[in-house]
Structures are given as C-alpha cells and as structure tokens.
C-alpha cells in the first residue's frame, strides 16, 4: 500500500496523468476513482471504504495492497459530487491517515460522514479542517466502534475548535466512551449551538456526563436543538436534574429519548416533570422505555403531564406502572390535550380495573388516537373493559394488542363492535386468532367502512381455510351483484406487509382496495365476478333504468382499463388458486364492449312493448 507523503499541489499537478490502475488494488477501485474524478452521472455520490466486499456495488472501495490512500483522499477532496462517505475501515498507520486527510480535508461537497472505525487522535484532529472548509456537511455519525481516550480527545479537538455552521446532526452510538472522554466531547459541543439532532446512545452517560451536557445546552445562545437521544446510558437523578436545567434553554426541543436508563427514581422524574410543565417546554415526543417507572414514578410524572400543552407521543413501555399508575396517569390525560399516541406495552399485567381507568380518558375529551398495549397479559375480560370505554370514543384510530395471547374471539367481538365508529388499524401479532376468531372478525367488519389495516402473523394465528374463506367473503361476496357491492372496499392490508401469508385471491381483493378508491374497487369486483349481470331486478324501473346501465358501463371503463395496466395478466392466469379470476383476465377491450351491448340487449329484449311504445310516443 503506497503511503508516500506528498502535498496537495503534487496530487493536483499529476491528477490528469496518473494511471488509476497503478494506484489501486483492483479494477473496481480504479473504476470508482474514475467516477469520483470525472463526476460520472451514473455515480450515486456515495463511497464506502471497506476491508472486504459487502454487495460488490460500484460505490465500494475495498482497501488492499496497492491502494494509494493519498490519491483516494485527493480525488474525494477535489470532487464536487461526493455527498456521502462511509468509513467502515481505514488501514493502520499514521502515514496513511496523514496522506489521506491531506487531500480529503479540501472537500466542500460532502453532506454526510459515517465513521465505523477508529481513526486515532491525529485522524480526528485532521478532520477538523474538513469541518472548517465544508459548508455542506450536515451529518456526522460515529457508529458501533470503541472510541478510546486519545481518540476522544481528537474528536473533542475536531468539534471544539470552531463552529461548523452546516452541521445539524451528530450521532455517537455504542462507542463505550470513558467518563473523561465523554465529558471532553460534550464540553466541546459548546461550539456547536446550531445542532438540531444530538444522539449519544450506549455511551455510559452518567451524572458527570449529564452535568457537562446540561452546561453545554445552557451555554447555547439561540439553541436550534430539536431532538435529543440519550438511550442506553447510566443517567441517574442528579443527571436528569442537570439535563432538565439545560433543556430549559432549548426552545425548539421536540423529541427526548431517555429509554433504558433504569437508575432514575421518582425523585428524578419530579425534575423532569418540572421541565414538562414549564413554559419553555415544547416537547412533542417523550420516550421513557425501560426506565424502571413504577406507580410512584408515574405519580411524579403526572404533575408535569397534567400541565403540558405540547406532547403528542409518550412511550412508557417496558416499565412496571400497574393499575395504580394507570389511574394516576389517566387523571392527567384530559389536560394533556395534544397527546395522540400512548405506549403502555410490557408493563407486567393490567387488570380490568386498570383498563376501566384507562377508558375514563376516552370519556373526558381526550385526543388519543393511537394506544399500544402490547405484551400486558390481557385477556377477554380486560378487553371487554377496554371496549366499554371505546363505545363513545371517536378519536381512537389505532390499537395494538399484540402478544396478549389470552385474547379469544369473544374479546375481539366486543372490541370490534365497540370500535366501529373510529378504529382504522388493529394489530394482533402473537395472538392465536384461529378460524373462530377470523370468522368473528370478518362478521364484525361487515358494513364497517372505517377499518383499513388488520395485522397478525399468519402462521402463529393458526387460521385455516375456513377462516380465510370468511375474510374472502368480507372482501368480495360474489353470491350476487348487491352482495359484491356491499362487500368491504376499505381494508387495504390483512396480516402484514403486502398481505403475505393470505391466499392469492384474498390478496388480489386487498390489492384492489389499496390501489383504488372504494367506489372504483366495488366496480372492479362487480366486473370481475359478474360477467353476466342479471338485469331482471331492475325491470321495475322500466326504461328509466336503461340510461343508468349505459352510464354505469361508461363510468366503469377507466377502472377496467386501469386494472389491466396495473396487474400483469400472466400472473393471474398462471396461478391455479386464482381460477375464479381467469375468465375476466382472458378478456380484453372487445370483451368489455360486448358485455355492455349484452346488458343493454337483455334489458330491451325482455321489455319489447315498453321500448316500442316509447318509440311511438317520440314519433
């Protein structure tokens, strides 16, 4: 590997004449350098620096013997088209780093820099030149590698020398920073008040780290911070107090994540509660997953929530809140009027008492739209208690009951009957619905034009042919034209992404629902399943019905054309379990025209005297 030290002017003078094959270890690397040098229009503007191939894509530079890191740095530095540089590997040695940075620091087009390998103190210090020269760099992510004390000092120097006004997003994820290294880096952030998103996760942030961060936030005049992520750390009560004081200066802070910090006690939550009810708080999202909150912790939070006018999403999953904690939280929800999503997953077990307390929020003007109750050992009795409160709830649109495996068809029936007026999405992952449950769900969704998405695991749910037949009839009952028209045309997903796991005919009808407005989906189902439309029921309308027949076919023409543009006929015709659709897809434009003529002919043929009489009157 060539690491001879040359200055930037040397590379600039020889750039046009250098043979790329002479400075790279592979043809793929030479091709990538050529694209970088020439600004090739086929190049995506990304470069991945690797020690081994991942996908073999053209943007992968796999370092080997013969690669000149100085030339790579020069071409990246002089490029006006590179946007994203991902360093997952860098060869050992100060000379290689110095040669690379000598050119790379001149880049002015880079927007995103991802680092997943330790560059050493000198490497990070040298990157400080890039931050000062580049007015487009808005994201730096140091992800999943250990940052030692010397490297932390280099990063602190890189960030603390002067403000990088373009830098908006800065992430440190699972770097196992030492307490001193962490404090050094956080202290350097005082130079970066323009940051909008800061993530320090899995990095041993403790009381001292929070104190440094709180002081950094407090020092920012006109702070722009919108999102602060501090999950999987060691934050305690004193740390949360320091953070709360610093966050009071962040007038744009919308999202705060403190998940997986189990050392915080009710005393710490009282500090956060003081921030939540302050005039400076503008949080919209608060994530407190796995923070060891019990009923006392919930009580400490409630005071802040009851006076908060901005919060929209609150996650309290993975705690031990219990019925008593639910009762305390519910008392504050009517005042937390902007709250739309509440996650109470994995809180041990809620009883009927807790669920009834929760439904009180539905009756007191709550704006709650999305309720997540995963993995809480709920059964039918708890579900029925929840259903009681949903009867008059018109705001709830999304409900997640996944991994509550004691729920049966009886509980689902009560729930769906109560939620007919508003529920659009129901998640039932990890529940053995069975054929009985599928039949109950399908029956309760008849005439329901609100439900759009029903999620469950097809294999775990243990639904067999009988259950899928019930869903099939719900989506398209082909026993008559009227029944087809009255089928469900709003459900756009059953069981999961693209409805994988459902029978093909069921997936086809779901496809129609998801890709066409409900009226058009109904029209298509009628055209597909009723080739010979029975006009006898319409004779009572006499000749008044004839223009309606003609008009209906005319309005249906765009739907007919759209379905043939959207779905490859061969896929349908080659599927033996979609034989019910073969007749329609074997046809074409001429077939559609003949169906129009046939319907009009049958109507006139069966009412000849009326037709003749009308002609004589007009004559």
How would you portray this structure in words?
The chain has 619 residues and is α/β, with parallel strands linked by helices. The protein contains 26 helices and 17 strands. The chain has a 17-stranded parallel beta sheet. Helix 8 runs parallel beside helix 9. The longest helix has 22 residues, at 545-566. It is flat.
User: What sort of overall outline do the alpha carbons produce when their principal axes are compared?
Assistant: flat
The tally of strands reads: 17
Overall residue-averaged pLDDT value: 89
Q: Structural class, please? A: alpha/beta
Span of the ends, CA to CA: 99 Å
Low-confidence stretches: none
Beta-strand proportion: 5-15%
Largest sheet: 17 strands, parallel
Task: Give the number of helices.
Answer: 26
Helix content: 40-55%
Radius of gyration: 32 Å
Summary keywords:
single chain; 619 residues; alpha/beta; 17-stranded parallel sheet; 26 helices; 17 strands
Architecture blueprint of SSEs:
Blueprint: H1 8-14, H2 27-38, E1 46-50, E2 60-62, H3 69-78, E3 84-87, H4 94-104, E4 112-115, H5 120-133, E5 139-143, H6 149-160, E6 169-173, H7 179-188, E7 197-201, H8 207-219, E8 227-229, H9 237-247, E9 255-257, H10 266-276, E10 285-287, H11 295-305, E11 313-315, H12 322-332, E12 341-343, H13 352-363, E13 370-372, H14 380-390, E14 398-400, H15 409-418, E15 425-427, H16 434-445, E16 453-455, H17 458-461, H18 465-475, H19 481-485, E17 493-494, H20 504-515, H21 518-529, H22 545-566, H23 569-573, H24 582-586, H25 589-605, H26 608-618
Parallel strand pairs: 1-2, 1-3, 3-4, 4-5, 5-6, 6-7, 7-8, 8-9, 9-10, 10-11, 11-12, 12-13, 13-14, 14-15, 15-16, 16-17
Helix pairs in contact: 3-4, 4-5, 5-6, 6-7, 7-8, 8-9, 9-10, 10-11, 11-12, 12-13, 13-14, 14-15, 15-16, 16-18, 18-20, 20-21, 21-22, 22-25
């Amino acid at each position: 590997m060539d690491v001879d030290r040359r200055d930037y002017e040397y590379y600039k003078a020889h750039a046009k004449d250098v043979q790329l094959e002479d400075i790279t270890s592979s043809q793929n690397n030479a091709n990538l350098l050529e694209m970088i040098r020439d600004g090739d229009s086929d190049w995506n503007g990304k470069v991945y620096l690797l020690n081994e191939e991942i996908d073999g894509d053209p943007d992968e530079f796999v370092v080997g013997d013969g690669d000149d890191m100085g030339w790579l740095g020069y071409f990246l530095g002089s490029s006006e088209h590179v946007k994203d540089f991902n360093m997952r590997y860098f060869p050992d040695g100060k000379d290689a780093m110095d040669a690379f940075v000598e050119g790379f620091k001149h880049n002015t087009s880079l927007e995103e820099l991802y680092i997943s390998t330790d560059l050493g103190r000198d490497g990070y210090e040298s990157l400080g030149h890039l931050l000062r020269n580049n007015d487009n760099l808005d994201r730096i992510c140091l992800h999943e590698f250990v940052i030692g004390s010397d490297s932390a000092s280099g990063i602190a120097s890189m960030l603390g020398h002067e403000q990088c006004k373009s830098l908006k997003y800065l992430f440190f994820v699972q770097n196992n920073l030492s307490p001193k290294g962490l404090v050094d880096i956080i202290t350097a952030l005082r130079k970066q008040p323009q940051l909008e998103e800061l993530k320090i996760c899995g990095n041993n942030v403790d009381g001292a780290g929070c104190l440094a961060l709180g002081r950094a936030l407090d020092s920012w005049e006109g702070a722009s911070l919108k999102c602060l992520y501090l999950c999987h750390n060691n934050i305690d009560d004193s740390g949360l107090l320091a953070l709360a004081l610093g966050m009071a200066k962040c007038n744009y802070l919308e999202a705060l994540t403190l998940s997986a910090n189990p050392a915080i006690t009710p005393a710490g939550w009282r500090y956060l509660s003081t921030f939540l009810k302050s005039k400076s708080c503008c949080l919209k999202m608060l994530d407190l997953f796995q923070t060891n909150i019990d009923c006392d912790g919930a009580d400490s939070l409630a005071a802040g929530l009851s006076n908060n006018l901005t919060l929209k999403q609150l996650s309290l999953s993975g705690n031990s809140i219990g019925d008593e904690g639910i009762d305390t939280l519910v008392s504050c929800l009517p005042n937390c009027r902007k709250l739309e999503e509440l996650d109470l997953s994995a809180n041990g077990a809620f009883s009927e008492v807790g669920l009834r307390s929760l439904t009180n929020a539905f009756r007191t003007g709550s704006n709650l739209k999305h309720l997540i109750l995963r993995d809480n050992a709920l059964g039918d009795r708890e579900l029925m208690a929840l259903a009681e409160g949903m009867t008059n709830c018109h705001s709830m649109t999304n409900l997640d009951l996944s991994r509550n495996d004691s729920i049966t068809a009886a509980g689902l029936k009560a729930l769906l009957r109560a939620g007919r007026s508003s529920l659009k999405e129901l998640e039932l992952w990890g529940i053995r619905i069975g054929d009985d449950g599928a039949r109950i769900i399908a029956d309760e969704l008849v005439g329901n034009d609100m439900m759009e998405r029903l999620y469950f695991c097809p294999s775990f749910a243990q639904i067999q042919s009988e259950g899928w037949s019930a869903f099939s009839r719900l989506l398209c009952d082909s026993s008559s034209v009227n029944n087809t028209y009255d089928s469900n045309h709003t459900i756009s997903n059953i069981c999961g992404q693209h409805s994988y796991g459902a029978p093909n005919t069921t997936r086809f009808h779901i496809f129609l629902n998801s890709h066409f407005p409900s009226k058009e989906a109904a029209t298509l189902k009628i055209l597909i399943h009723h080739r010979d439309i029975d006009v006898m029921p319409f004779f009572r309308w006499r000749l008044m019905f004839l223009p309606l027949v003609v008009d209906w076919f005319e309005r249906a023409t765009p739907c007919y054309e759209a379905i043939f543009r959207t779905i490859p006929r061969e896929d349908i015709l080659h599927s033996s379990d979609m034989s019910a659709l073969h007749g329609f897809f074997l046809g074409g434009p001429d077939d559609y025209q003949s169906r129009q003529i046939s319907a009009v002919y049958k109507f006139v043929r069966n009412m000849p005297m009326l037709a003749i009489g009308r002609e004589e009157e007009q004559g």
